[in-house]
Each structure stands twice: as structure tokens, then as C-alpha cells.
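Q: How would the C-alpha cells look for this protein?
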Amino acid sequence: MDAAGSRFDGLTALITGSTSGIGLAVSDAIEARGGRVIRHGLGLEGALGQDLAEEGAGTSLAAAALSIAPVDILVLSASLQIREPWVSITGDQAGRQLRVNLLSALELMQGLAPGMVERGWGRILTIGSVQQRQPHRDMLVYAASKAAQFNIVINLARQLAPSGVTVNNLSPGVIDTPRNADALASQAYLDETISHIPAGRIGLPSDCVPAAMLLCSRDSGYITGQDIAVDGGFGL
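A: Here is the predicted structure in C-alpha cell form.
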């Protein structure tokens, strides 16, 4: 275990979307550094399996996590992204994305932040997207939900900072996750995408880990309300 790793000893994290991608990478990293992780995700053995697209799922998940242990760190990695031209997106498609990406996230914060405040320490990290600033034309609702999520981060960061609780956002760029596998399988799409990334490559889930470890650790008490882009320069 490295020196920074010891900063997670005695801390418990609830991480949504722990089945794959960034959520899985962050979960593994916190555990490797001495923290306890309560994992969430559909189809993951041993994980809490609430479907965040259902009404009240965030509240239910928070209660389930607290029945295991007080939660010191909340990482909101689960999200739903539906590609559809804006003129044809349905109310159901829009509603499901807003429920997963925004409303369930709010419910989880409502359920877990008060305990952090009472104990005088906590870390909340939302996994956003570069689409907060550069929305994809076929992901209008997804991009809007991520922008709204960051607005919540700014709002709560001001309110919770006096209690020792930080609230921050990490905005990944194009990351090689199962959700992006089909699109990145096209060589033409891959080449076009990389042409817009100064680092010259697609990101990996592990690229998001160092920033996440900082923002979730005991070392980040003076960092709050921030949006950290991990995008290889895509947003420049």
C-alpha cells in the first residue's frame, strides 16, 4: 500500500455503478488503499442492486447502505445515456435518464449527507461528463442532466463545507468503457474522436482513479465545489 493509500483506512464508501468502467476502477482503488466499499450495480454478485431508474431507488439504496455501515464517502458513478436525436426522444427515455442521473443522485445525497454532517467529515464525488460543457447533439437529455448535477454540486458544496463535507465533480472525457464499446469499434469513429483529443488516445477507467482518490481522501478537505476534467485535453 502506498503512502496515499493509508488515507482511506477506516473509511466506508458507497459507489454506485460498481459493475464496470469508472465505478469499478474507483471501487477497486479505494479497497486497495484500505477503505471499505459498499458496491452497487445491477447483476453484480454481492452488490446492492437497486435500479436507479425506479422512483425512490436512491432513498432505498441509501437506507440499504446505512444498514451495513455509516457511509463516509459517496461516489455517484451510475448513469444512463441514451443516444437519440432530440426531436424524437420520448418522455420515457428522458424521464429514465433524469431519474438515474439526477433524481436518484439527489436522493442518495439526502439520505447520506446528513450523517456525514453529524460526524463532521464526508466526501461526495459525482462522476459527470465533458458534455456538461460540450453537449453531444444526440445526447441532449444526458448532457443536460450532467450539467444539472454539477449545479447541485456547487450548491451543496457551499452549504456543507462548514461541516467538513466536500462535494466535487469529476468530468471524464471519452473513456474506453463497455458503454462506449460499440461506437469505438468503428475505426472511422475512433480516428475522428482521437483527432479531437490532444493526448492522442482514448482514456481508460484507470485514468480517472488518481483524481478520484484525491477528491475522496482525507487530503482533500480544502477542495470543494470543483469540476476536475479527466479528458486528455478534449475540452480545450
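Residues 1-5 have pLDDT under 50 and may be disordered.

The chain has one domain: 4-174+206-227.

Upvote if useful.
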